[in-house]
């Protein structure tokens, strides 16, 4: 079981560790058990978290020199090795493409003729070795690893070895012992092989890299004819026009050409293809698996589409019909042959079936499968193809398309929302490529939209599918939990994308002038290029030092990246090559500036110099020396700016000065601008003039005539030091960002103050920017927030929330539509400044520090860094009460055993006592009625679901499109089969055509029918209801008055009690989606009340609980021990009655207090006391208090723990044996055992009653936290490498390491029934593990690091509550049926 015992048990039987009564037979010799690291190799340090599609099954390459330059290496996002075929295309595709996206290796066509490249009849292209010195760079979006095949699988290894065919055969042989595979597995193998071949063909033909981000021309309308007058050879005249239906830059397998030309056999199509290849119309490639692929020339494709438009439109439809077999196969069930899934949207748009494409794009399962098969770009291009045509045809679609009566613009708006939800969900989906979670993530980000009435029917149907899939696949795959309120970033709001990939703070961000590429740099030593249109990382540069500055040339062709080691690199964004390394500085480079002509770059360094470099050859033209003078104590150059005409540069320094240099005269010093009384930290030229604005730590900014050295204006008014100054592109306004929490806008012409922008940030403002049209100002701050301001009025228009930690920079696109922010949390975020800001649900202003459930499970209390305490209804995710009880952040909290009292403590020694008893009574009344209503809803849901098999589809169950229990359900037969969810129109008219065979949704219904039929003799099975409360049980028949129509909904429209009312319509908030599980689609199909009820219809139902709580007039804050001066609190502990507190200060004093009277009842350790005979001889790290407050435990750096008798303030026992400082401890629920964890990699288990050692548990890494299960049968230990070891204390063994987390853990807690362990941490995930076998049952990924979590719900804990570092509280549906 992964552990070794190093000491005999002494004859004791099972249970000696976990049971205090039977443990007495152990004597004085503890058992020593070691975790067997060999069994779980996952305990090795994990690789950095990447948001790349290439992280699956491929090994990261170490950083190395770049062609001998010694300062960096170019790699794909994870630096993975590529096959020989991929290395053939070793540069970014943009360098290999012509002006219209064609490959530069394609034969040219002109004057009506085209010459082939070689004399070969077949023109077969074979892989070529990489050129010497070439860089291994390719796009993530063509990576085989995007398929989502589990790491370590033979298929993934096969691509690395270049032998995919043999690998697939090996998988088949291994699966059935050398025999024939079952049909499902055979289909899965065939689809995976086809995708392998497609990607290899693209690489061989030079189109395996990134495709253009823009939308291609509408397939059925040629934008131009590149070959006017060209006529194909007479024998091929009948075949040539049909090529106009093929998508450009997409390899086509020979069997597709056989469909296109209606050839009887692929061999016949091959002969035709060879003839076209000889004419230069296409190229052929033979792969190592024996398959033949063709790549038509984009020029010839465009010519055929322009010359024969009617034929091409018909061919689009014929291709689709051949795949769909006349409508017998749904579009989302098509098997992937390496071509059709990539080209499906192209053909649908080409024949005008926009409604069919819309339905396909509204299938999250299909989107997820294509994402992991072909990457982000392929999916986003499908959305754009639809939107381009739908917006062009804004009028209502005609009946020929089988469209609904809604107008095209409305449908396009819904698809835009889905695209935004998809892009917001990308980070989570890409980090978990083997987990099916896209539907849940998208639904969680569309809650506010659905609450407002948009996409409502779709939302109800999809949530029903989530519920059905979760119930039927609970033990077959990992589940993603659904939040009950819109706690994740919402589509339709300001935030558009989160760019995840860096493993350290993002220091700077730059947007290319073409507004397509975004370059982020980080302290992790990497620079990443992101495609703004799709949110995907397309290129990465790895350096040997943290990166500090970045700039982009005016033509968007190159980026200059500077590092802390004093070097900079000129990086070609077209080829991925480092073209020049700029070496010369002897200290960190702080800033750089590129002139608007793209000729020079100026770098500013801590070595007291700035240097001027020629971008063409990388030579140093001048060294700008002068800062610091002769003393040399100060003089670090902190920022640099270059004027619009490129003639002047200005550098600012910590020597309180700014210096102006003439770049045309070899860097001659023109002026020294003195007058500031502190460090000058930022500079910016004004428009196209030589005016210069400088910002200083002396709380002022100054406007100068840089050429003449004359001071024009002093901009005073800030009360804190200035961090940044920015000027709008036109030179009208300057904005300064200050430590005083405000930004100020100044008139550059007069020096007058225009606006004071304050009230949005609770920390220093780090950066600010003004849009090109001077209508908006965007500011960012150290508290992780950003704000959008109206420049004319100074009014705040939107708050940009999502970052955790300081936001270090903000940049704007040229038109000012989008802003990109760089955060200390390792992410960059894209914000749509034109979007309407949604009203966010209540949340803490800062990290959630504590979460606790009242004993009845019907109320949850949260505390945060903002000093506030929130009371929540976990069923609906609604905040019932908000109280400000502390001046500083709350760090400690405990709920009393009877649930009436809650104690909270903060670092300033304040302890507040809250009484929630009356609120608990109100929740109990509402909870009883809610459970009655829900049971009725469940009965109605089951009856409706089992009776509507022929009229409404519910869900696609498995990855293979097969029913539960069939072979191959985990591998998947093909792309569409992986997530079949609905029948999509495939007829020319776009109407729904019934299939002749049973699809996966009918299998789902059959499973539901069977489960209900099996339960005919007893109560029907309950059905999980995501986003609705209570435990889904079925009991006796309910009274006639109980109706599903009165199911409770949310209280999002009402103001939070204790806070000012909100005037925003409730539909904009969307908190709590009511009953949105399986009953959603079932009730809608039956004509019943939909689960997402209109706000007016549910006012009475939702107001009940709030009215009951509002009727409580007593202030819950009953007493408070005031804050005290002196040493701050290091740790606190409270007793079960919440009347006593043990307080540990940073000076290691430990005291016990009566909270009611505020009196100190015992002083366990006095200040400065270090007598080892009575107390600890080293610093104390934590204190723990038993339920009756008569016993306390302290752990210390002196390698011991002490068990104290509180009334006498004396030590009862000393726990010895550790060889390093103690870091954590826990007391079992029965208070019989104490577990202490130390840096010596051990956890010692000790009897509280006698102080005798019970066991010593060894680990491969130092532990950071330890937690007993409530039944005392298990103990979880979190380790420094982010893994968790679960010990079976009864069986004296351990489970294999739980190693799914990729960052430090902050949560280690057990479910009340001890069946599940909940872990969560800085990787933004919460994970639920089964205690019996360590299998991961479910998980949830938030937008920010999860900092606190607990279980809620009654009578069974069916809700997981998680708080994150951004202040959001997530209520996750953990229905009993999902628990297995």
UniProtKB/TrEMBL annotation:
Compositionally biased tracts (Polar residues): 73-106, 114-126
UniProt keyword list: Repeat, WD repeat
Positions annotated as WD repeat: 499-540, 540-581, 582-623, 673-714, 715-756, 758-799, 800-841, 844-873, 883-915, 1173-1214, 1215-1256, 1256-1289, 1298-1339
Region (Disordered): 1-138, 391-410, 949-1047
Positions with biased composition (Basic and acidic residues): 48-68
GO cellular component: SAGA complex; transcription factor TFIID complex
PANTHER family: CANNONBALL-RELATED, TRANSCRIPTION INITIATION FACTOR TFIID
The protein, known as: Uncharacterized protein
Lineage of producing organism: Eukaryota, Viridiplantae, Chlorophyta, core chlorophytes, Chlorophyceae
């Amino acid at each position: 079981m992964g552990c070794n015992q190093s000491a005999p048990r002494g004859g004791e039987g099972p249970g000696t560790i976990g049971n205090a009564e039977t443990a007495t037979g152990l004597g004085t010799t503890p058992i020593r058990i070691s975790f067997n690291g060999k069994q779980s190799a996952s305990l090795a340090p994990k690789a950095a978290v990447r948001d790349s599609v290439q992280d699956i099954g491929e090994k990261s390459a170490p950083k190395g020199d770049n062609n001998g330059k010694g300062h960096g290496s170019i790699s794909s996002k994870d630096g993975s090795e590529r096959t020989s075929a991929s290395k053939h295309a070793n540069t970014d595709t943009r360098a290999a493409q012509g002006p219209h996206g064609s490959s530069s290796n394609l034969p040219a066509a002109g004057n009506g003729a085209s010459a082939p490249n070689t004399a070969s009849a077949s023109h077969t292209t074979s892989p070529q070795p990489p050129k010497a010195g070439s860089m291994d760079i390719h796009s993530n979006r063509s990576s085989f690893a995007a398929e989502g095949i589990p790491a370590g699988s033979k298929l993934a290894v096969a691509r690395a070895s270049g032998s995919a065919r043999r690998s697939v055969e090996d998988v088949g042989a291994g699966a059935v012992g050398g025999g024939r595979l079952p049909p499902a597995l055979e289909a899965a193998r065939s689809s995976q092989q086809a995708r392998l071949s497609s990607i290899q063909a693209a690489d061989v033909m030079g189109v395996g890299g990134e495709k253009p981000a823009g939308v291609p021309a509408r397939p059925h309308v040629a934008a131009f004819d590149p070959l006017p007058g060209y006529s194909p050879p007479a024998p091929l005249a009948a075949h040539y026009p049909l090529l106009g239906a093929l998508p450009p830059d997409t390899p086509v397998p020979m069997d597709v050409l056989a469909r296109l030309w209606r050839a009887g056999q692929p061999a016949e199509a091959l002969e035709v293809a060879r003839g076209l290849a000889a004419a230069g119309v296409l190229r052929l490639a033979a792969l190592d698996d024996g398959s033949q692929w063709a790549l038509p020339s984009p020029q010839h494709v465009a010519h055929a589409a322009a010359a024969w438009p009617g034929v091409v439109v018909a061919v689009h439809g014929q291709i689709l019909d051949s795949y769909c077999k006349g409508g017998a196969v749904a579009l989302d069930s098509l098997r992937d042959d390496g071509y059709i899934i990539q080209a499906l949207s192209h053909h649908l748009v080409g024949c005008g079936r926009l409604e069919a494409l819309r339905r396909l794009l509204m299938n999250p399962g299909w989107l997820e499968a294509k994402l992991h098969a072909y990457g982000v770009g392929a999916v986003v291009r499908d959305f754009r193809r639809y939107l381009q045509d739908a917006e062009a045809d804004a009028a209502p679609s005609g009946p020929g398309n089988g469209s609904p009566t809604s107008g095209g613009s409305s449908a396009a708006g819904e698809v835009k929302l889905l695209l935004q939800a998809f892009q917001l969900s990308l980070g989570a989906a890409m980090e978990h490529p083997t987990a099916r979670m896209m539907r849940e993530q998208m639904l969680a980000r569309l809650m506010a939209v659905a609450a407002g009435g948009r996409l409502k029917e779709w939302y109800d149907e999809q949530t029903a599918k989530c519920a059905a899939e979760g119930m039927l696949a609970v033990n077959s795959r990992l589940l993603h939990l659904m939040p009950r309120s819109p706690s994740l970033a919402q589509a339709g709001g300001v935030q558009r994308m989160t760019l995840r990939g860096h493993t350290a703070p993002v220091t700077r961000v730059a947007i290319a002038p073409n507004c397509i590429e975004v370059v982020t740099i980080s302290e992790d030593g990497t620079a990443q290029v992101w495609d703004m249109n799709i949110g995907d990382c397309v290129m990465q540069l790895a350096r040997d030092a943290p990166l500090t500055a970045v700039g982009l040339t005016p033509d968007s062709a190159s980026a200059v990246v500077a590092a802390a080691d004093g070097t900079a690199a000129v990086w070609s964004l077209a080829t991925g090559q480092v073209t020049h390394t700029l070496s010369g500085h002897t200290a960190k480079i702080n800033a750089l500036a590129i002139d608007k002509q793209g000729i020079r770059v100026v770098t500013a360094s801590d070595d007291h110099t700035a240097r001027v470099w020629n971008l063409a050859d990388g030579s140093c033209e001048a060294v700008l020396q002068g800062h610091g003078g002769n003393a040399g104590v100060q003089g670090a150059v902190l920022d640099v700016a270059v004027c619009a005409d490129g003639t002047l540069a200005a550098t600012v320094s910590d020597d309180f000065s700014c210096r102006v240099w003439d770049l045309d005269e070899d860097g001659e010093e023109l002026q020294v601008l003195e007058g500031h009384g502190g460090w000058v930290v930022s500079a910016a030229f004004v428009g196209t003039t030589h005016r210069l604005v400088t910002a200083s730590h002396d709380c002022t900014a100054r406007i100068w005539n840089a050429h003449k050295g004359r001071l024009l204006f002093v901009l005073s008014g800030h009360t804190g030091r200035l961090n940044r100054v920015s000027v709008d592109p036109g030179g009208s306004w300057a904005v300064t960002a200050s430590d005083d929490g405000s930004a100020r806008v100044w008139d550059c012409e007069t020096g007058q103050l225009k606006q004071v922008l304050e009230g949005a940030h609770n920390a220093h403002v780090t950066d600010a920017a003004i849009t090109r049209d001077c209508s908006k100002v965007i500011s960012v701050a150290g508290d992780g927030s950003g704000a959008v301001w109206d420049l004319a009025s100074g009014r705040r228009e939107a708050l940009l929330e999502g970052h955790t930690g300081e936001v270090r920079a903000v940049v704007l696109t040229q038109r000012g539509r989008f802003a990109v922010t760089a955060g200390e949390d390792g992410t960059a975020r894209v914000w749509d400044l034109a979007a309407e800001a949604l009203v966010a649900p209540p949340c803490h202003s800062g990290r959630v520090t504590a979460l606790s459930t009242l004993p009845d499970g019907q109320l949850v209390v949260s505390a945060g860094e903002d000093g506030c305490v929130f009371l929540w209804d976990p069923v609906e995710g609604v905040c019932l009460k908000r109280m400000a009880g502390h001046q500083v952040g709350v760090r400690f909290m405990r709920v009393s055993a009877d649930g009436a009292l809650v104690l909270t403590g903060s670092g300033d020694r304040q302890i507040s006592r809250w009484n929630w008893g009356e609120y608990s009574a109100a929740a109990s009344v509402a909870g009883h009625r809610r459970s009655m209503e829900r049971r009725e809803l469940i009965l109605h849901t089951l009856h409706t679901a089992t009776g509507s098999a022929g009229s409404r589809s519910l869900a696609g169950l498995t990855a293979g499109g097969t029913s539960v229990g069939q072979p191959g359900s985990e591998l998947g037969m093909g792309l569409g089969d992986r997530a079949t969810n609905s029948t999509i129109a495939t007829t020319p008219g776009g109407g729904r055509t019934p299939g002749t065979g049973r699809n996966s949704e009918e299998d789902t219904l059959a499973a539901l029918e069977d489960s209900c039929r099996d339960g005919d003799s007893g109560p029907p099975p309950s059905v999980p209801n995501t986003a609705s409360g209570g435990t889904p049980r079925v009991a006796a028949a309910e009274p006639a008055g109980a109706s599903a129509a009165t199911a409770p909904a949310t209280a999002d429209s009402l103001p939070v009690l204790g806070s000012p009312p909100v005037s925003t319509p409730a539909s904009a908030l969307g908190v709590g989606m009511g009953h949105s599980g399986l009953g959603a689609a079932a009730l809608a199909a039956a004509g019943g009340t939909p689960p997402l009820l209109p706000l007016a219809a549910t006012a009475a139902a939702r107001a009940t609980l709030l009215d009951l709580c509002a009727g409580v007039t007593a202030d819950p804050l009953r007493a408070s021990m005031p804050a005290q001066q002196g040493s701050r609190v290091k740790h606190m502990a409270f007793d079960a009655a919440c009347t006593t507190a043990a307080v540990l200060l940073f000076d290691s004093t430990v005291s016990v207090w009566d909270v009611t009277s505020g009196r100190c009842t015992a002083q366990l350790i006095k200040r400065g006391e270090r007598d080892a005979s009575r107390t600890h001889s080293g610093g104390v790290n934590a204190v723990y208090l038993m339920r009756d407050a008569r016993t306390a435990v302290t752990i210390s750096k002196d390698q011991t723990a002490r068990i104290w008798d509180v009334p006498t303030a004396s030590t009862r026992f000393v726990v010895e044996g550790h060889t390093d400082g103690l870091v954590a401890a826990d007391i079992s629920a029965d208070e019989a055992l104490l577990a202490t964890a130390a840096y010596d990699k051990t956890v010692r288990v000790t009897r509280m009653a006698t102080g005798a050692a019970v066991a010593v548990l060894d680990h491969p890494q130092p532990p950071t936290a330890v937690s007993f299960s409530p039944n005392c049968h298990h103990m979880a230990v979190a380790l420094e490498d982010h893994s968790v070891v679960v010990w079976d204390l009864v069986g004296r063994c351990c489970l294999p390491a739980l190693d799914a987390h990729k960052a430090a853990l902050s949560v280690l807690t057990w479910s009340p029934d001890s069946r599940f362990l909940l872990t969560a941490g800085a990787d933004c995930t919460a994970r639920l593990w089964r205690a019996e076998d360590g299998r991961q049952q479910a998980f949830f990924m938030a937008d920010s690091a999860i900092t606190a979590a607990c279980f809620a719900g009654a009578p069974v804990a069916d809700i997981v509550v998680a708080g994150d570092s951004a202040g959001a509280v997530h209520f996750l549906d953990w229905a009993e049926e999902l628990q297995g």
